[in-house]
Design goal:
The structure is a homodimer of 300-residue chains. The first copy, chain A, has 300 residues and is of the alpha/beta class. Chain A has two domains: 253 residues, 4-Layer Sandwich (Metallo-beta-lactamase, Chain A), CATH 3.60.15.10; 41 residues, no CATH class. A seven-stranded mixed beta sheet of chain A has the order 6-5-4-3-2-1-18. In chain A, helix 9 packs across helix 10. Chains A and B meet through helix 1, helix 2 and helix 3 of A and helix 1, helix 2 and helix 3 of B.
């Protein structure tokens, strides 16, 4: 699992930074989290394939988190998409997107399913390879964070062993799923001789836009990677509180309390040209903190 | 008067090209024509000041012509705009923008006036320095082109004469408006000695998205500059017809029939990487044709 940051800025685009969008890649899937204006162009720029996306999560109805969604859907349709797509978001989202598509006379040829986020926390998607949950955070309007959790991670190949037993590379896929290899002469190579246990399933937590509050701490506990917004530096904590946002110091405090493995910072206010102070400030409290850079992929 | 092309591509962004947006500058005003996704970022990139914009014209409800509007309005609000703004577009536009702002809990502190375009042609704004008209074109959904016409262009300074009469530069503004200069000793310098007639008022015509048709020819007649969409090269004329678009050859034919001074081509399909063939094809019929480049300013 990894996450590519497509937009690391808050609402007002500045210094070449874009509004929020992230692409979480796991198994063969890409899950988009939020979809600020320009998402489709950022995806093109950083090689995130639209066809691999079947799930889009929208945290709340501030424009910098979803104004890029209609354009992306439209472009998917123009490119002849047939695969179904699931969108999870606030209940106001579907009628707005419907009205835009209706006004444009657009009809999608792919099945588009809207799922309204619950008022509280809950599992919103549970498939073979991952589970997605949402949890409420504290923002000016209703807003949800998300947790994406790996499931049934595949076994790890012991390449030297595979080669020693002469297993063809075309069988590496079934090996990862736990199958034994049967050679042309009928010899069986038991799976456990050529693979190892998968790594423990990974968890990615996304705080969305929120005030610093321990109300959502239980949901992000022990995340391998926590993305936490840090719109402001702590010198501007009063602004952060007034606008229902957090500072980098608060994000670091949250990562520490949650016992997270790594902290990714983003949603930087356009008042800051240089974002390195966010990282420096957070590291005074939580060492493994990164001020995210657009186009960069962070392993979870 | 001049026009800066902020997006020269059709719906699907490609090769670094963006969906339609143009900034027409005249007097101290900037009039935006269409507002595809990413308009606010393109405006920042090319130094088009949001504060100078008081009129936005939306030709039709295909997303590549207005999906950038909500984000721009939002950003104007975040920047503390107080000046009024007039938006002219199809009647579906206002409720969609309203729903988006309501869902986000946004309240603008600037007066925002929506004006519904008439079914046919008509004058939609008539001020001191310019007049804006709209006219119906032939697209898959209702769509309007626009004509922007200069009014009361200012007199031209005869700099040598101004200097010979010792007129201070601070008085050049009133001179352009036709005022006589009164020197500190009471001597009057008549305006006509130091200025010349203004140039004839200029006309810019914008075809929006349309099939080739002489139905709108009367409205664009004698435009100094005609922007005409040319989504396809003429080899793809069947595609153009099927999708209610035009080819560069048809655009050139229209410019010739309209007796336009110059033809600007745009709304290029994402199937073409190189757009120079559009210009070459158009010039076989109409010499003064340009395939527009994003970020370039064309004098009208």
């Amino acid at each position: 699992m990894n996450v590519t940051i497509l937009g690391n800025n808050s609402a007002l685009p500045a210094f070449g930074r874009h509004p929020t969008c992230q692409a979480v890649e796991l198994s063969s899937e890409i899950i988009l989290i939020d979809c600020g204006e320009g998402t489709q162009v950022q995806m093109q720029r950083y090689g995130i394939k639209w066809r691999r996306v079947h799930h889009i999560l929208i945290s709340h109805m501030h424009g910098d988190h979803y104004f890029g969604l209609p354009g992306l859907l439209n472009s998917m349709s123009l490119q002849g998409r047939k695969d179904e797509l699931h969108i999870y978001g606030p209940q106001q989202l579907e009628p707005i997107v419907d009205a835009m598509m209706h006004a444009g006379g657009h009809q999608f040829e792919f099945p588009l399913h809207f799922h309204t986020l619950p008022d509280g926390a809950g599992v919103i998607s549970d498939g073979t390879y991952f589970k997605i949950s949402c949890f409420p955070v504290q923002h000016r309007i209703p807003c949800h964070g998300f947790v994406i959790e790996q499931k049934n991670a595949r076994r790890r190949l012991l390449i030297d062993q595979c080669e020693a037993y002469g297993i063809p590379k075309t069988f590496y896929g079934p090996l990862k799923l736990g199958e034994d290899y049967v050679a042309p002469d009928g010899t069986v190579v038991p799976n456990e001789l050529v693979t190892a246990e998968s790594l423990p399933p990974r968890r990615y937590a996304y705080s969305a836009d929120t005030l610093f509050s321990d109300s959502y701490l239980p949901y992000i506990q022990n995340a391998d990677v926590l993305y936490h917004e840090s719109t402001y530096l702590h010198a501007d904590v009063e602004k952060a509180v007034a606008r229902f946002h957090s500072t980098s110091m608060q994000a670091a405090q949250m990562a520490k309390m949650a016992n997270a493995g790594q902290l990714l910072l983003g949603h930087f206010s356009s008042k800051y040209k240089d974002i390195t102070p966010f990282q420096e400030e957070a590291r005074t409290i939580f060492e493994n903190a990164m001020a995210t850079i657009e186009g960069t992929t962070y392993p979870v």
